[in-house]
Every structure is written in C-alpha cells, then in structure tokens.
Amino acid sequence: MAVVLTAVAAVAQSDAARVTALLRELKNPDFDRASAAASELRKYPQHRQPIVAGLVDAVRTGEWNRCGGDMRDAIAHHLGELKATEAVVPLIEVVKSGKSIEHECAE
Where are the domains of the chain? Predict the structure, then answer.
C-alpha cells in the first residue's frame, strides 16, 4: 500500500512540475511554443487553481511575436472550459485595454 501511495505522490509531483513548466512556456514570446504549452495544459485539469492563475496572468501580460489575439482567444476559451468565473473581470480588463482577442493569423 505504501508503495502505491508513494507512486501516486510522485506522479502528482511530476504533474505539478510539468504544469509549472508549461505555465512558464505559455508566456514565451514565441507564439508556437506558447500555443503548444496552452494546448498541453488541457491535459492537467486536476491542477485547475494554478492553471487558472497562470492563464489569467498570461492573458493580462503575455506578449507574443505574432498572433497575440489568437493566443488571448485560446486562453479565454480554456478559462471557459475550466468554468473560471474568477477570470471574467481580468478578461474584461484585457478587452477594455484594447489588446486584440480576435484571430490575427490565417490558419
């Protein structure tokens, strides 16, 4: 039983470390790297609290080398998937600031 609990704790720690690394990468100025991190974060809904905080921080302060509106749009959708009502006010502030939240890049 102790071995199983130790294994579960190790996985939880490695998941938490992965989430932390992905949140750092989310603010990478390279759009492709940040976008990949945003997609990968969806695999860790059990870490909702730090993910929501990191997404809110990124949508407020993130600057990407291209497609910033696309990145903000993706972040807003992820916050919606997480039902992050605490992100409503920060998202409204982003809209009011004039930062683009619309697709800028052709897909």
Answer: 2-97
3 state SS for 22-38:
HHHHHCCCCHHHHHHHH
Q: What does the alpha-carbon distance between residue 101 and residue 43 come to, in Å, rounded to a whole number?
A: 24
Judged by average pLDDT, the poorest of 12-16, 20-24, 52-56 is: 12-16
- The runs of H, that is alpha helices, within the chain are 2-26, 31-41, 48-61, 68-81, 88-97
Distance separating the N- and C-terminal Cα atoms of the chain: 50
Mean confidence (pLDDT) of the chain: 88
Residue 99 has pLDDT above 90, yes or no: no
CB atoms within 10 A of CB 96: 8
In this structure, which amino acid lies at residue 30? Answer: D
- Which whole-number Å values give the CA distances from 47 to 11, 13, 39, 101, 105, in the listed order? 13, 11, 14, 25, 30
